[in-house]
């Protein structure tokens, strides 16, 4: 089994900086690099980004540079998926593993369509509270990655990921049903991200009893109803566990979707209500909360 020694990260947002920092700390500057275009490379190299108050001097690479990643972490927004695929294409070799920290459940399918089924291990980034503002990333807590095999052919690359995550002390969980866990994460994203984005709320606003917390739970229940028609069973126990996780994050934080609304950037509504509403119509399931969010946040 070939060890993962060199890692490229696409997307120097909050999640990219979190994992770039953790990986560089253990693996060293030469083995971790952010992949970007020449214009961004020149800008990034002029000023280090701060991570929890500490300057991070990262390596930056662009197409044509001599760097051969064994692992590529895609940490961009889904709106950039097509551009990202073309950026990483020259760096993908026979044994490269690709993981995506994007929200939703669609990015792995897009990556597999471009690079083959077994380069891509389905991954979930969850339970972090992070903010990127003025070249500074703050993250409390750091959260965790969830990884898992969808069939036996994923097992070798999954083992490679476990080895490097253990070495670099990356918080992660090994899932026994990664597709279900991905739908579960989609459920909390639909509830929390959309509510915060639509009404300009922080996590703290959802940690208090009231209409917005009730809205989160009702939206999650709609997703669970739709998921059942996709042979994914999500339960009230799942909702309770997610609400407990929500109550543990920084009350001053907010999901990236809410930050996008405040900064007048395109949102990822297409990954959330934009996916659930058409499925609900297909299966004749009523999803009024998701329909409302789609109307409010549709780009």
From TrEMBL:
GO terms for biological process: pantothenate biosynthetic process. Residues 7-149 form the Ketopantoate reductase N-terminal domain. InterPro entries: 6-PGluconate_DH-like_C_sf (IPR008927), 6PGD_dom2 (IPR013328), ApbA (IPR003710), KPA_reductase (IPR013752), KPR-Related (IPR051402), KPR_N (IPR013332), NAD(P)-bd_dom_sf (IPR036291). The keyword Ubl conjugation does not apply. Residues 177-297 form the Ketopantoate reductase C-terminal domain. It catalyses: (R)-pantoate + NADP(+) = 2-dehydropantoate + NADPH + H(+). This is 2-dehydropantoate 2-reductase. The gene is arbA.
